[in-house]
């Protein structure tokens, strides 16, 4: 846990600001604590108010500077509201965006419905691209930006019954390359991390 680590004498991110989507569980929760442990002021989001409130209380007790708000990344208007909140809290500037939240679904390829496909692609890919677009002017204002999107090793291998999830993560990989190329001139770094299966809630 971040609270047990000794950061004395190590590099610091104090003064930086970050948004981490889906920060109340699993990988996202660990990312929030790691960034906060390095001195970053973090804003995260969740679809569950009770879960978010519990995490915020725990982080406050640990001395972490973390705020949070409710957001279902499937909905475009909620993504826009999230980034409006972030802009207000961080005074129109942002340093780090971690696209972590995702939706998984296990079905045989022939059983996916149009609604399934829309839900997965909107949450896992469209929201990533849209949040990057919304964060762009905030990065420009801070004169520095770093985007890290959580992809998956399943984006480059075939795993039965995960076809749409894998496609969504493959799209994340490609847009990462495109944005890294296009926004390098603006001092914005764009990367994706592709973990394997991790025993945690999604």
TrEMBL record:
Transmembrane segments: none
Gene Ontology molecular functions: oxidoreductase activity
InterPro entries per record: NAD(P)-bd_dom_sf (IPR036291), SDR_fam (IPR002347), TR (IPR045000)
Keywords: NADP, Oxidoreductase
A Pfam family per the record: adh_short
Family: Belongs to the short-chain dehydrogenases/reductases (SDR) family. SDR65C subfamily.
Protein name as annotated: Tropinone reductase I
Naturally occurring in which organism (per UniProt): Hevea brasiliensis
Lineage: Eukaryota, Viridiplantae, Streptophyta, Embryophyta, Tracheophyta
């Amino acid at each position: 846990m971040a609270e047990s680590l000794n950061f004395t004498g190590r590099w610091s991110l104090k003064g930086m600001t970050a948004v981490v989507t889906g920060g109340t569980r699993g990988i996202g929760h660990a990312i929030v604590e790691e960034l906060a442990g390095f001195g970053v002021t973090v804003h995260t989001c969740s679809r569950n108010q009770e879960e978010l409130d519990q995490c915020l209380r725990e982080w406050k007790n640990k001395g972490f500077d973390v705020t949070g708000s409710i957001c279902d990344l499937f909905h475009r208007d909620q993504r826009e509201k999230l980034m409006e909140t972030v802009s207000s809290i961080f005074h129109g500037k942002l340093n780090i965006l971690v696209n972590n939240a995702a939706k998984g679904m296990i079905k045989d390829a022939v059983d996916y419905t149009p609604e399934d496909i829309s839900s997965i692609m909107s949450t896992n890919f469209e929201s990533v691209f849209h949040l990057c677009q919304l964060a762009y002017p905030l990065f420009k204002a801070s004169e520095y930006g770093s985007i890290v999107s959580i992809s998956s090793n399943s984006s480059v291998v075939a795993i039965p019954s995960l076809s749409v999830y894998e496609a969504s993560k493959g799209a994340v990989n490609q847009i990462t390359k495109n944005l890294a190329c296009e926004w390098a001139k603006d001092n914005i770094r764009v990367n994706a991390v592709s973990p394997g299966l991790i025993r945690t809630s999604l």
